[in-house]
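tool=predict chain=A
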Amino acid sequence: MKKGLLSFLAVAVTLVGCQNYDDQFADLNTKIANLQTSIAGLATVGADVAALKATVGGLATAAQTDALSSGLATAQADLDAIETALASVASASDLTAVKSQLTSVEADVKELLAANAVINQSITINSLPTLQYAESLVSTDPTDPNVIVNGNVIVTLSDTFLNTAGVDLARISAVTDKIATVLGAATGGQLAVSGTYSTSTSPGDLSFANLTFVDTDLNLTATKFPTTDKLTTVTGSVTATTEGAVKFNNIAITGSVQIGTGATSVDLTGSTVSGNIYTVGSGSGVLVLADATSIDVGTALVTDLTAGSATTIKLGDTSSDNDLSITGSSSLTQLDIAAKGIDNLTIASVSSPTIINIKSATSIDDASVSGAGQLWLDAMTSLGTATISADIMNVPAWETNAGVTTLSTVLSLSAPKLSQTSSLTLTAAKTVAIKSSSGNVAGGKSLVMPAVETLTISAQSKSASISIDGDYDTLKTLSVTGAAADGDLDVNQLNGVEVVAGAAALESVTAGGKLSKLIITSPAATLKTLNTSGEIRLFSVTGANVIETASLGHDHVEGMLGAVFTFNENTKLTSLVADNLAEVRELNIVGNTKLAEISFNSITDPDGTAASLKVSITNNALTADMVAATAATETKPAVPAAITNSSGIFDLKTYLGSFVASTALGTTSFEIEIDVVNYKATASSDAVTKTNAAAFTADNAAGNVTAGDDISTAAEVALIGS
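tool=predict ok
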């Protein structure tokens, strides 16, 4: 029933409203008012129905169109039905149902009253007489409907006006609180509140408590900002030059927004601004807010902001490719920027408490940030030329630094996707995690880290190596994982790591992935731990005299030339295990004075044809048991010498056999020295400690095959047993 009645009442609003308050419309409004009075005073349900029928009948009499008459006839029929139902009420529940139907009709009538509350002229309030006239136009009774002003609303405040007997802000607000919509005049349309006055003699606020829609410009320039808590839409521009708090929450503003430089706060939380924002005397997008302690501009585009007192700043524009310059202060604690991309970013005069959130920007062409505590760039993939001072910098998506980048105060950089291509200087960073480094460039390093202690490279470029030397003399922990190349790996897999003596503090090296080389030469005496995994073609550790732990889990690089493994003159390590390594073309284990055991139980010679094969294992601390050869007798055949318990040398027997068999395919040489031989002349003899050379000399029975200082022939290899 309510839906049907409301549809024809809407017609009544449209058609009657077109009469511009002529006699017929006045008569209709009088009958509506009578209807409202009769509903409010109903004593019984029957009286309610009778009164409403009479009033609707009056409306029908006043109706000027067939459409309206038809709608009212329908309403009359509905009321007849209610009256019939009332006559047959037999219980309290029946009566409740009838009353519910009647309440619905009453609500529809009140909607009609509100819809017809239109004032077709402008309202000006600047004196007692104009206020009294406004009160004659706008009923301030709380039960009366709020109004639509089809014109301007202009309120001008002054001490002269406000100090007039009987005038205060509360009385003016009683009128302005009843204004729901301002449509504005055809020319010069506005809702305006202006003027200066003493807030001490006129305390309180001017209120527009029910204002929701301003279909024109909104100009607020008075001493104090009025309250507009329900305002949702301004289709024109907004001028808010009040020296004080400026507040527009959750408002859609079609035009521009002008703010006074004396604003103590700017709060456009949740508001969308389609036009420009600026302060008085500034260009589009420029805000000078020296006194504002908090700033939220909604979605307005700001390109230049000076905010010497703000503790919080929110810039909600989400566009890309604009410049942004912000001058803050040491008071600033949080800066939120919603832009999805920034051309040139400048943030100055902030300090270590400041947290800067630019979490949606995917690219920043150029940046200068000074003094921030934290900089969060969650979505940024590309950064151009940049100088950034921030203690903490979060860049999980950062992929490229397109220009020279200096991060002067960042203490910890976690950029696991960053492939550093242009120069990157991390002046104060102690912990650095990146994807790849471009390594050395002409004139020095492209990755400058004078304070780094922990460096992690997760996918070192297939074409670049990194050198750890005196430029990284604070580095303690190094972890490098190589990225895989494609195509001809001997040509394309060129990445590597080189460590030399200048890295004075280095304690641990971890290498994995795919690397062309890992070379450690005479490192600092601090290097104690070495770990490898993945695939490394050339592995060389020389002169690492304090390495205590070496976990070597890497294999050769499948698709490249055979592996090279060198472990020389490392005087502290006692055991060397490389059980994953296969396809080795060169094996050097020399001068490791405490190395008593080796293990290479997966070792093989390279697939295909190798240009050369070489094994040299000498001057270590390897031991073996040896029983000398026994010459043949008339009754017994000769028994060759036997070498057992050989400190892992047995792992090499099959490899060396294949190695020797490859002689026709290239040059080969091998020498394996048993540094301490527990020699027995016969199986039942007591063991005597000898050098390799002395043991082989003592093994002089007829038919023996041992000679020289070490194992270097196929026949000698054949003597090695488990």
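Residues 4 and 105 are 10 Å apart (CA to CA). The first helix runs from residue 2 to 17.
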